[in-house]
Structures are given as structure tokens and as C-alpha cells.
Request: fold
Amino acid sequence: MPLNRSYPRAIVHFDADSFFASVEQVMNHNLRGKAVVTGGERGAATSVSIEGKKLGLYRGMSLRDMKKMCPDVVIVSSDYTSYSIFARRMYSIAREFTPHVEEYSIDECFADITGLRSQFHTSYEGIAQLIQKRLHAELGITFGVGLGPSKTIAKIASKLNKPAGFTPIPTRAIPSVLSDIPIGSLWGVGYSTSFKFEKLGVHTALDFAQKTDGWLKEHGLAKPYRDIWLELNGAFVRKLATTPDDSIGSILQSRTFTPTNDRRVLFSQLAKNIEGACAKARRHGVRGSSCRFYLKTQEFTYAGKNLSMSIPLSDPREFLRLIEAHFDSVYIPGTMYRASGFGLYAITSEHAIMPDLFGETVRVESQSKLIETMDSLNQKYGKHTLHLGVSHSAVTNEDQRQVERRKRSRPRMHMSLEQKRKTINLPYLGVVR
Reply:
């Protein structure tokens, strides 16, 4: 079949609607039609059902605020094992149509259906909708689906008619669509970078697409941004990673401690969690672009905040600087707290990170020697042998608690010299029956 000028390359993007909450509704029919929120274990929503979104609830919103806004909301703890099973089924269904499938995230995937029109006796639009119907029928979950000549265009398309919509963007229609897309909404352009683009007069995706190659070179745009620019102009540059992805989705660290309202102690406990999560990220060779910290009160209520970084990071000092600036928006003086937690999200492999437009990556890398030394010493001599000063109170308190626990579990026996002479140092193995 001859080359299709509308889709010289036919790339489809599948984006599950309210994925975690939708899975919960599939597994428990009593939740169907209700405002369902996942994230009960965190104190903030990780997913909101379609019904909940219609009521104004949104991901990242505190559960306390949700209850005030919608008393009937159903809040459940996240079941990541079930979500992963549904994700694997999603990938498997897509692979029944084409082997060229990229497992982009737990609720998204790309599929290259180029050249399959004759096999399925229908257009590329028809093939994309066939897969969409199969996903809905077999998983019970709806998907926003986008079709375009590149991954960037397909991802834009899948979000235009959610939930359960299908949007094709052939090459000729790209400019009219891009004119309504803010530069900050583009896949691969974060908040900080979008602000810099705005200063350069780039406000929409179309503004960026219409720039010249010379303009890109003049402003020193790195390869990732050039790839986006090329794909906005209809080229297929960002190849599909078709190897199954077993990467980490998030890294969480939390700890319960003796109730306190001391701000210094609370921040130290939080810092210890941040150090632990970042150390785990470095062990796995990944970094996070966003994070969340929370405090849990003695009454078991939660308060927290979601924050974004300008680049992916695994250096606890960078997260501590950001959280220090926002800590007092969560901490309430005089309130007794019993636990804190920290999570890393938007996880990216270190090997996939490109230098950013404004030199933040270079700055962070230049300050990484101390962290590398800490990792080396802690690996050799034990966890927390070397730690940041702000975590010292939490580390020493934990050490003391462990000593107290050992004392309680293994009480010392005071024996006279005569008793000691009569004691044989043999372990007690129980009574033979």
C-alpha cells in the first residue's frame, strides 16, 4: 500500500482515564458510579475517578479538603500490585495488534501501527479505534487515544477529548491544533523551562514549531528540545522503546516516631526520610522530577504538599532546600505529630537524562562528589554512618530507640558468682515432645 501522506508514520498513544481509581471501580462493583479517590495511605489523592473530577476533585488534593468538598467521596488505599497487573494486560492487548509497543508508564503506552492498514483492512484511524474498543471491553477502563505522525503529536492528541475520546491529528492538521497548546503543556517541557520559553516569546506549541533551525542554535537548545521541535513539524524522531519496562514508578520513605510538636525534630525526621529515599534512588540509578512530603498528626490526620523540580534529581540537599521553603505551609505550631513521609515521583533513569537548557544539570553534577563519598562510606560501614547534619537528631534518636528495644526484648540477668559457675553456656532449643 502506498505511503499515507496524512500519516507517513502512524503512532498511537493510549492514556487510561483515572487509571488507579478506575481499576478500583472494576475490582469492586460497589464503587462504580461513585466519586472514588486512591491515596488513602498518603493523605493526598493519587487518582480521582471521572465522577470525582466532575465534582471538582483533583489529583494531589489533600484528603481532608476532599472530605469537606464532597462528604460522600470514597477514599481507598492504593493497590499498586493490581494496577501493575492491569497495566501488563493493557500492553499485552496492544501487542496483539503490533509488536511495536512502548510501555511508557503504568497507565500509558505508545504503539506504532505503520503499514498495518492492509492487514486489518481499515484505515489507521480504524485500527486505533479497534485497539481502544478492545482495551475498554477487556479491562473495563476507558482510554483517551491519540493518533499522529510522531509520539509528541500522538500524546497531544490523546488528551484533547478525554475521557474515552479518540483524536486523530494528520500532518496537515498539526498547525491548527498547536495554536491552542500552551508551551508548558508540551511533553518534555517542564514548568521552569516553559517560563524561560515565555521570556523568549514562545507562548504556544505553534510558536515553538515555527521557529527556525538557526533560532534553536542561537539559543543553545539541547537535543531533547530540538527533537520536540522536529516532531511538532511532522517528523518522527523520538523512537519507541519497545523493550518491556520494569523501571521503578515511585520511591517512598516514611517513619513513625515519638509524638512531638518540636519543629526542629519534625524537620530532622523528614530530612532522614528524604536522605533514605534519595539513597535508594541512587542505588537504582534513577532520579525524580517531583516529590511529596507529608506530616501525620497524633490524631492520624495528614497534611502534605506536592512539589516539582526543574530537573530530575537524587541529591537530598536539593529537595531539602525546596521543602524547607514550603515546610511551614504544612506544619502547624503546637500540633503533635507522630510520623512523616517523603516520596519521589516522575522517576527517570540517569542514563536518559539530557543536559537542561539553562545549566541546572551541570550545577548539580558539580556538587555530587560529597554524596558519592557518603554512599561509599555508608555502603562500607552501614546505613547512616555518614549523614547530613539536619538528619542527625532523627538518626541518633532512632539509634537510641533501637538500644531501648534491645534492652526490653533481652533483659539482663544478674547472677551471683556461684550461679555463674553453675551456668553452662548452651542455647535453649525448646522441649522435646
Remarks:
- The chain is about 40% helix and 20% strand.
- The chain has three domains: 11-171, 173-232, 251-402.
- The domain at 173-232 is CATH 1.10.150 (DNA polymerase; domain 1).
- The first strand starts at residue 11 and ends at 16.
